[in-house]
Design brief:
654 residues, alpha/beta, Rossmann fold, Luciferase, domain 3, GMP Synthetase, Chain A, domain 3, 3 domains, eight-stranded mixed sheet, seven-stranded mixed sheet, 19 helices, 31 strands, binds 5'-O-[(S)-ethoxy(hydroxy)phosphoryl]adenosine
């Protein structure tokens, strides 16, 4: 194999839980010999149970698997209260605002805030166990406090990313039938205030009958509307709450949270996670993949609106008793050195970000890292999309000083935590490769019938045994859950979890993820369903039909490209239609209000027709090839009109 292999730097990894490949292999074997017993061993060791579980894995109603049934725990207790005996004065959350303001919450202070907030939710807003609370918040410590307060009283939170539009927020509130919405007036980005509360006001204008109260946290102090009897000030109410709150005992399988994510068809799916299985894996992966130690300061740049923010800013780090950094701003403000300045200042030991940010920081400030002391770093992580070798190399050399291990962590909203990833203290790393499944995770690259895909060829990335932190169901839609994840691939006649991603195994057994195989685009590491964008574009009165595909993009990884057939092309304008910028603007405006700015098209082409089979199926593969500038290799003779392919090529390439 000609490819370089990078070995862990022994100096950096002392007393690691998985210190080398031998111990990795031993652990994998332990799981092979006694899968359930090994999981039970970790569950007993890691979780502070209120009541022990009596069943390890219940497969009787597959694929609705249950883990640790009969056990009772509380995730806020696991993440906060249980640490008070030994770490009460340790920093739990270090917050840095957009403008550089700082706040540190110790575990004691975090417990105090969580308890007061939990009491507020119970006593002022009547939130009970099992009620849904939608959280539409910026990156401030209160977001973590609010999530943990829900966990403390057994309410199910659903965090909606602050970049989603009012319509997208409304859909999620309605689907979850939320009782309470928690938001902020707004926050700061790139030195300027931006607003969130007005978006909530707009979302609640129609259809959100379940919402009784809105709780507003002050961050930027800008003027906002107050609706008497509905809107309440968090900052005011918090003053009157008791700082003592009993942790609600939760059954292992009761839902902890919902998080909406895009699928290949229809509306977003409310991915439902459990209490025990989820928190167990969040904590174990924090220890294995980030090698988190008591004196470490760990920083993940994700937003709490995504699963990475849930598992690796809030739940994983706090369950491990770590110090987690939360950052309100963006990595390029005031300049491309912001992250490196923060690494130096807080002496960050683990830095976790997305390839899109790495590409951007590389492009904007190739030498920027050399201006700062980054010697505290041990582990660099990436997540969200395949990382390309040039970005990997720069991350390794310029940021990691060729000393740190890079963990390319492959996982999904649905998996709850990391699935395939190097272990920084053990795994010999091949650049831009997720390497091996973590111990306990049974990952196989197979064909749909379960036969292993030959080495070096693309197959389906499947997980063939249930694992504790897996998705439990899609909220309100168990049939869709079965169809979406257990409908495509079988092994030994049994349906197995298919991720929607393609992957390849090399001759050394290393797994490389090759990207989505379905109609989901990965823009800057965010999943966006083409069907959702198409539905939005079709709302424009002059759009007859549309097909959306991913287009390679230097920074974002993938951008969004729409092929659009207009209903009416004015005769006089026939030549100019390709440049009908007005319509393009209108279409993007619709997308922005329907979904949010993250789903805006990077490009559009107005075409006379789409390549369709005689039965009317749009051949997206051809459209993907055209935008990538690839030669069309598929058979186009079965198309209703084969000439349309060259017509579209001409339009796109002109
Ligand atoms: C992609 C984010 C390659 C993949 C945690 C997956 C990756 C989707 C990687 C999940 C990686 C995530 N290498 N691709 N290391 N990590 N992906 O649900 O397509 O927002 O299915 O979860 O991102 O995105 P999600």
């Amino acid at each position: 194999m000609s490819q370089d292999i990078f070995y862990p730097n022994r100096e950096l990894f002392k007393d690691s839980p998985i210190p080398n490949m031998e111990s990795y292999k031993r652990l994998v074997e332990e799981f092979e010999k006694d899968y359930e017993g090994t999981w039970a061993k970790f569950a007993k060791e890691k979780i502070d149970w209120f009541k022990p579980f009596d069943t390890i894995l219940d497969e009787s109603n597959a694929p609705f698997y249950k883990w640790f049934s009969g056990g009772e725990l509380n995730v806020a207790h696991q993440c906060v209260d249980r640490h008070l005996a030994t770490k009460k004065n340790k920093a739990a959350i270090i917050f840095e605002g957009d403008n550089g303001d700082q706040r540190i919450l110790t575990y004691r202070e975090l417990a105090y805030e969580v308890n007061k907030t939990a009491n507020m939710f119970k006593n002022e807003f009547g939130v009970k166990k099992g009620d849904r609370v939608v959280i539409y918040m910026p990156m401030i410590p209160e977001s973590a406090v609010v999530m943990l307060a829900c966990a403390k009283i057994g309410a199910i939170h659903s965090v909606v990313f602050g970049g989603f539009s009012a319509d997208a927020l409304r859909d999620r509130i309605i689907d979850a039938t939320a009782k309470l919405v928690v938001t902020a007036d707004g926050a700061f980005r790139k030195g300027k205030p931006y607003m969130l509360k007005p978006v909530v006001d707009k979302a609640l204008e129609s259809g959100c009958d379940s919402v009784e109260k809105v709780c507003v946290i002050e961050r930027n102090g800008e003027d906002i509307n107050w609706i008497a009897g509905r809107d309440y000030s968090y900052n005011e109410l918090i003053k009157y709450q008791s700082s003592k709150c009993k942790a609600e005992p939760m059954e292992a399988e009761e839902p902890l949270f919902l998080l909406y994510t895009s699928g290949s068809t229809g509306k977003p799916k409310g991915v439902q996670h459990s209490q025990a299985g989820y928190i167990l894996w969040a904590q174990m992966t924090m220890e294995w993949v980030f090698d988190i130690k008591d004196n470490d300061t760990y920083w993940c740049t994700a937003d709490i609106g995504w699963i990475t923010g849930h598992t690796y800013i809030v739940y994983g780090p706090l369950a491990s008793g770590a110090t987690t950094v939360m950052f309100e701003g963006v990595p390029t403000f005031p300049d491309a050195g912001r992250c490196w300045k923060m690494v130096e200042e807080y002496q960050i030991n683990q830095f976790y970000t997305a390839p899109t940010a790495i590409r951007l920081l590389h492009k904007m400030g190739e030498d920027e890292p050399s201006k700062y002391d980054l010697s505290s770093l041990r582990v660099l992580g990436t997540v969200g999309e395949p990382i390309d070798p040039p970005a990997w190399k720069w991350y390794y050399e310029a940021v990691g000083g060729s000393r740190c291990s890079i963990v390319d962590t492959y996982w999904q909203t649905e998996t709850g935590g990391h699935m395939i990833s190097p272990i920084p203290s053990a795994t010999p790393i091949k650049p831009a490769c997720a390497t091996f499944p973590l111990p306990g995770i049974i990952a196989e690259v197979i064909e749909q019938d379960g036969t292993p895909t030959p080495i070096g060829e693309k197959g389906f990335m499947c997980f063939t045994k249930p694992w504790p932190s897996m998705i439990r169901t899609i909220w309100n839609d168990p049939e869709r859950f079965k169809k979406s994840y257990f409908g495509d691939c079988k092994k030994d006649g049994k349906s197995v979890y298919f991720s929607g991603d393609g992957a390849m195994v090399d001759e050394d057994g290393y797994i490389t993820i090759t990207g989505r195989t379905d109609d989901v685009i990965n823009v800057s590491g965010h999943r966006i369903g083409t069907a959702e964008i198409e539905a939005s574009i079709k709302k424009h009165p002059n759009v007859a039909s549309v097909a959306v595909v991913g287009k390679p993009h230097d920074i974002k990884g993938e951008g969004i490209f729409a092929y659009i057939v207009l209903k009416q092309v004015p005769i006089s304008k026939a030549d100019e239609v390709a440049d009908d910028l007005e319509t393009m603007k209108e279409i993007n405006q619709i997308i922005k209000s329907d979904i949010g700015a993250i789903a805006l098209c990077d490009g559009m082409a107005f075409v006379p027709d789409l390549p369709k089979t005689r039965s009317g199926k749009i051949m997206r593969r051809i459209l993907r090839s055209i935008i990538k500038g690839e030669k069309i290799t598929q058979d186009i003779s079965t198309l209703e009109d084969p000439t349309i392919v060259s017509t579209i090529e001409n339009i796109v390439n002109q």
